[in-house]
Design brief:
747 residues; alpha/beta; 6-stranded mixed beta sheet; 5-stranded parallel beta sheet; 22 helices; binds beta-D-glucopyranose
Length: 747
């Protein structure tokens, strides 16, 4: 049992920073053992520090299972898949002796240009929170801790260590904190990683409101907060704010500064003790919970990531039944360097060394008896582009079907920088045009961590598969999907806009170098496109499969149970002739809200996999929060809501108006409250009524005239007292009225 009380002040100041790059401090005499941490979230990037450690993917790491990137796994919309991927991470962590995996990343994709879009799940906080919670549960079940990152509002790479995300509280609560909140309140994560950036001018690592009042006070977090690598400027201020552990090792001067802060009285020693307690308690809790991931091997892990990669693939188009490819027939041309050199992992902290690597070029011939020919078409560096193109065109012209793999090379997207456009490399677009003209049937497969401009592709391709960054089994998973061994199981977790200029943050991205204004507020992703009716290339939630579904018997009930505000039930039938999965998406709209609200917001979903002809009844429960907005607290207004059930945000097949019978919220009256607000307030209206009666007919006359009420109703009451009330000291008179209301409210 660790004993913080046995440590000296210097030792405690040392314990709140790492021992090295990937480890925490040990004080064996006090029973304190070190813990090892490693990136996450797409597989373990575990480095033996003697071989060179870094947080940018520069030095080698031990091999471990490379998962599909979160941008891919989000497209599964399948919490069970995410839970299994968590088990794979737990298995590798235990194999390598890692105590805490640095992930998942649950920041919201504010703009598709964000350099780390591949490392985050979605533009939607509900989906992000559910998938994030599932992968966390998969790991923590086996006593492997997580560090849910990056807390918070870490949505761009430009100036990521200093930029201030200037964002109002409603937007923070509804969009940027909601996934963290769900994970903290449902899975008890071991740690959170605080972000590099500032929020409204305050560094996340020094934000007491965020790290202590909200995270622990409101959400009940009982783990510890570690810093992102190099995020902390002042260790003493971080400890005071509730950011307990500074990573990596901060050096002697930083440790000394904590000692000095305690000795000079600027840091309360009890806060340092508390940070130390949190760190050692979490490590002990994890060790006590550790148990092996039974049945898992590296081979099984490879199978799991292969299934997940196939389930992540989103089929955007499939005309003339181009897919799946027939098992027998003429030649298949495979074109694109990605088929031979897959981009299976992201950059920076996602630079995982895989345990094995499947390419499409190796996998496809074993999945079909058809002849497969290959032409690279382009290179990732300088090559003879015209020659490569003409070879590719010849291969396409001589084949029955062409699978053309396009995508973003590493140099186009990574941790550390943002994109400036959505374009594919120009040589690939040139290749696309020439190959499309020559190919009889063209299937385009995209490899990218964040969405790309599809306007050149859509009209030219018969079928399009968005395959993302698919992990170490991406090649075999793609072969499975092409040949119909598995369906493309994905649905978009982020909108593909027509043009970057259409995207919500476009006018406020990436800020002026020191601040970035979140001017689009809560209107992120489809919340923006759908509210404004802006055309998109492919909507949120969209994805085709190899079978068809009928959804029937949809009901939306309002049960009389406190925890459930609404219950959606429907039956889904697989009407095609192949196994397939349907994602039931439930959106909510509040048409008569007192504040502006998005046209629709995802509040629930369920994935069902059905055999041909099979039917299943699906239920999705919506809690009170599904109807709430933030206004200093979560507010659910009584009245009508529209519950929409769809196959994407633009394909709603059933819409129901329900009425929620919840108590009307009484908005407190304050210094600026208007006449109208006084008249609507249950007590305020009585107090006001008494004033009107006392004032006599002239004032009552004003209130009887609807036009005059419109004119004066929006004025602050205190101004009316000054102008019309004849009060000698209107401010004092107003304060007395407020006090009267408050005291009657208390009664
Ligand atoms: C990244 C984190 C990562 C850490 C350690 C930082 O640069 O932002 O996501 O966990 O490095 O590699």
């Amino acid at each position: 049992m660790a004993r913080i009380s046995d440590l000296t002040l210097e030792q405690k100041a040392t314990l709140v920073t790492g021992a090295g790059f990937w480890s925490t401090q040990a004080f064996p005499d006090a029973g304190i053992e070190p813990a090892l941490v490693a990136d996450g979230p797409h597989g373990l990037r575990f480095q033996d520090e003697s071989g060179g450690a870094d947080h940018l993917g520069l030095n080698p790491s031990e091999s471990s299972t490379a998962l599909p990137a979160e941008a891919a796994t989000a497209s599964t919309w399948n919490t069970e898949t995410l839970r299994k991927l968590g088990e794979v991470l737990a298995f590798d962590a235990q194999r390598l002796g890692v105590d805490i995996v640095l992930g998942p990343g649950v920041n919201i994709k504010r703009s598709p240009l964000g350099g780390r879009s591949f490392e985050y799940f979605s533009e939607d906080p509900h989906l992000t929170g559910r998938l994030g919670a599932a992968i966390v549960s998969g790991m923590q079940k086996y006593g492997v801790g997580v560090s849910v990152k990056h807390f918070a509002a870490n949505n761009q790479e430009t100036k990521r260590m200093t930029i201030s995300a200037d964002v109002d509280e409603r937007t923070l609560r509804e969009i940027y904190l909601a996934a963290f909140e769900h994970i903290v309140t449902t899975t008890r994560p071991a740690t959170l990683m605080c972000a590099y950036n500032r929020i409204n001018g305050v560094p996340a690592s020094e934000d007491h409101w965020l790290q202590t009042e909200v995270l622990r006070g409101e959400w009940g977090f009982d783990g510890y907060v570690m810093s992102d690598w190099g995020a902390v400027d002042s260790m003493a201020d971080a400890v005071a704010a509730g950011a307990d552990l500074t990573m990596p090792h901060a050096g002697a001067a930083a440790i000394r500064s904590v000692v000095d802060a305690v000795e000079s009285g600027t840091l309360d020693e009890s806060l340092l003790d508390q940070a130390c307690e949190r760190i050692v308690t979490v490590h002990e809790r994890l060790r006590a919970a550790r148990k092996p991931v039974t049945g898992m091997t590296s081979e099984r892990a490879h199978e799991i990531v292969r299934e997940a990669a196939a389930e992540s693939i989103v089929m955007l188009k499939n005309e003339r039944s181009a897919l799946p490819l027939a098992p027998e027939g003429g030649t298949i041309a495979v074109i694109g360097e990605f088929a031979r050199t897959p981009r299976f992992r992201g950059g920076g902290s996602s630079m995982v060394t895989p345990t094995q690597l499947d390419t499409l070029l190796d996998s496809l011939p074993s999945a079909t008896s058809r002849e497969v020919v290959f032409a690279p078409g382009f290179t990732f560096s300088d090559g003879d582009a015209p020659r490569l193109r003409s070879e590719a065109v010849a291969a396409a012209a001589e084949s029955d079907v062409t699978v053309l793999m396009l995508g973003l090379p590493d140099s186009y997207e990574s941790e550390g920088f943002d994109r400036t456009h959505l374009d594919l490399p120009p040589d690939q677009i040139a290749l696309l045009k020439e190959v499309a003209a020559a190919a009889e049937t063209l299937v385009v497969v995209l490899t990218n961590g964040a969405v790309v401009d599809t306007r050149e592709i859509t009209p030219r391709a018969d079928a399009i598969l968005e395959a993302w960054i698919g992990g170490q089994a991406s090649g075999s998973a793609l072969a499975d999907v092409l040949m119909g061994v598995r369906e493309p199981g994905g649905r978009l977790a982020e909108t593909i806009p027509e043009r970057i200029e259409d995207s919500p943050a476009h006018l406020n991205w990436p800020g002026d170098g020191s601040r970035v204004l979140y001017g689009e507020r809560i209107y992120v992703g489809y919340r923006y496109y759908d509210t404004l009716g802006i055309g998109v290339a492919y909507p949120f939630g969209f994805g085709l499969g190899y079978t068809s579904f009928e959804r029937h018997g949809v009901t939306v009930e309002v049960p009389k149970r406190a925890e459930a505000a609404a219950l959606v039930t429907l039956t889904v039938t697989n009407t095609g002739d192949r196994l397939g999965s349907d994602v039931v998406q439930v959106y909510v709209h509040a048409p008569h809200a007192q504040v502006d609200r998005p046209r629709r917001e995802l509040r629930g979903f369920a994935k069902v996999t059905l055999d041909p002809g099979e039917s299943r009844t699906v239920s999705v429960e919506l809690d009170q929060r599904a109807f709430a907005y933030w206004d200093g607290e979560w507010v659910v207004e009584p009245g009508e809501y529209v519950v929409e059930i769809g196959a994407s945000s633009r394909d709603i097949y059933s819409s129901h108006t329900i009425t929620l019978d919840v108590p009307e919220r009484v908005r407190p009256l304050d210094y600026d409250s208007t006449l109208n607000e006084w008249m609507e307030h249950p007590i305020g209206s009585q107090v006001f009524g008494a004033i009107v009666t006392a004032a006599g007919d002239s004032v009552a006359g004003v209130l009887d005239d609807p036009t005059l009420v419109n004119v004066v109703g929006g004025m602050p009451m205190r101004k009316s007292l000054a102008m019309f009330g004849g009060e000698a000291d209107p401010d004092r008179a107003y304060a007395a009225l407020l006090a009267q209301v408050e005291s009657q409210m208390r009664e």
